[in-house]
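Worked Example 4.2. Consider the chain below.
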Amino acid sequence: MSTLKAPRRRVNWFKRDWRLYTMLAIPVIWYLLFCYKPMIGVIIAFQKYSLVKGMWGSRWVGLDNFKALFSSTNSIGKQFGSVLKWTLIWAFFATFLNFFLGTFMAMIIQRPSTRFKGLWRGILSLTIAVPQFVSLMIIRNMF
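Applying the procedure from the previous section yields the following structure tokens:
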């Protein structure tokens, strides 16, 4: 004669596995903060955005911004093909140069017989620090 166990109550599921849910909370919070929260800004593409009114107070225009972008009746639409082409060209060369120049600089710095190792390290640190400084200056001047 076998005895059947009564089914477990579901009331104690969190109490029993609280450590697992605590570990699960960390990636869920990270995913919400860094993957879903930035997507709220996509709403701006469908609004006639006003900096004064903000994202929630601006007027909703639907797909009118995209129609204006892709139509060739205004100056933005006429330049769209050229802007897209140059964006893709710049992205390709930036990727190409970052990969190969980074590899080249790492090889030069790691050579034991380099006489100007300090000079190369200085140049490398300037190429990393100066663009970030300049971009902050440009943003400051825009405002």
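The beta strands are 47-50, 58-60. Residues 75-110 form the longest helix (36 residues). Compare this with Example 4.1 before moving on.
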